[in-house]
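Each record in this resource describes a single protein on a pair of labelled lines. With that in mind, the following record should read easily:

===
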Amino acid sequence: TPNTAWIKDAQGRWTPSNQYTPQPVSTSLAIQALLSYDEGYSVPSLDTNASRSIRYLRDEHRLLLPENSCGTGAIQIYSIHGKLLESIPVIQQQKSVFIRSLSERTVYIVRLVRGQKVYTNKFIY
């Protein structure tokens, strides 16, 4: 099989991995996010304060908006590649948003702009 893995050597040069090791082996490396597809699971926000993060309720296809967010604004849903898939207006005092069916079961990025504040999170549809 062809080798697609490269290793940076002590001199800072990139070398094919099958030319670097004493016992050469052609290989490939991949970096992939490991995610759980359990019902009700969402990728946790980097912000540990739940009142300031957007949460996804998979069973209801609904996004719970942060408790401390107020005013009008918009929810934007992006693909993992950064393509805007959906923009949903948010009105004053709205606590949640239902999302339409998305095309595939993958990771999505959600962004809420409300007043002067911006909230983001990831979720698995």
In short: Confidence is low (pLDDT under 50) at residues 41-48. The helical segments are 17-20. The radius of gyration is 21 Å.
